[in-house]
């Protein structure tokens, strides 16, 4: 079985994105260059930031992908929201209960949606 363990985002400036993601994730990249930055997160997932002008095939515009982070409960989602808001991260959806759980969404410098949620006890 193939394992999904790597997310690669097309970004305008990997070093600018590195500043944003290092602060957001609370970890430093394991690889850092002007055209590519790589994180290996504590849970093993890898996040790559590749300069979009060098990608083949050419990437589609941001917007069809969300990078999602789960939290154990509503209070943890609210705490993460407050932290991101205080750090100046652009919030595109205020905290709200939705069918799948309690959530909010922010945006990275390239327009990718960063969703944080806690799962609803009885999802619709």
Write up this protein.
This protein has about 120 residues and is α/β, with parallel strands linked by helices. It has two domains: about 5-55, 2,3-Dihydroxybiphenyl 1,2-Dioxygenase, domain 1 (Roll); about 65-120, 2,3-Dihydroxybiphenyl 1,2-Dioxygenase, domain 1, CATH 3.10.180.10. The chain contains two helices and eight strands, in the order βαββββαβββ. The chain has helices spanning about 15-25, 75-85, and strands at about 5-10, 30-35, 35-40, 45-50, 65-70, 90-100, 100-105, 115-120. The strands form two sheets. A four-stranded mixed β-sheet has the order 1-4-3-2, covered by helices on one side. A hairpin with a 2-residue loop joins β2 (about 30-35) and β3. The model has no long low-confidence stretch (mean pLDDT about 95).
Short description:
With 124 residues, this protein is an alpha/beta fold. It contains 2 helices and 8 strands, in the order E-H-E-E-E-E-H-E-E-E.
How large, in whole angstroms, is the Cα Rg? 15 Å
- Could you tell me how far the N terminus lies from the C terminus, measured between alpha carbons in angstroms? 30 Å
What name does the CATH topology of the largest domain carry?
Answer: 2,3-Dihydroxybiphenyl 1,2-Dioxygenase, domain 1
Shape: globular
Q: Strand arrangement, largest sheet?
A: 1-4-3-2
The main pleated sheet reads as: 4 strands, mixed
Overall residue-averaged pLDDT value? 93
Q: For the record, what CATH class of the largest domain applies?
A: Alpha Beta
